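Recap slide: SUN1 protein, sequence and predicted structure.
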Amino acid sequence: PDMYPGNCWAFKGSQGYLVVRLSMKIYPTAFTVEHIPKSLSPKGNITSAPRSFAVYGLDDEYQEGKLLGQYVYDEEGEPLQMFPVMEKNENAFQIVELKVFSNWGHPEYTCLYRFRVHGKPA
């Protein structure tokens, strides 16, 4: 609900995933990832922010998804960063998976503050 330091969904280590069921099927066009800015971080860094990640569209939560793009969250960039769908896709999805491959160096955990999916209704 807010962007205060620590009000995130944290997972152990630098690799993890999040699966989201949307309210309706959409044709994804972009994704946004948001993390707190360094200026709000108690230690002055955002090493717990995701670094390398990919987004997949799924027909159901038990399948291997269709790759929609691979991205890097820029720790020096704006707190809210938008990433367009990179892979040509003609399918609509109601389930989207965010797979994080690395963070910016935090040895214990990775924090996700906000992840949004943008698109056109199917």
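The chain has a mean pLDDT of 93.
The chain has one domain: 9-121.
(End of recap.)
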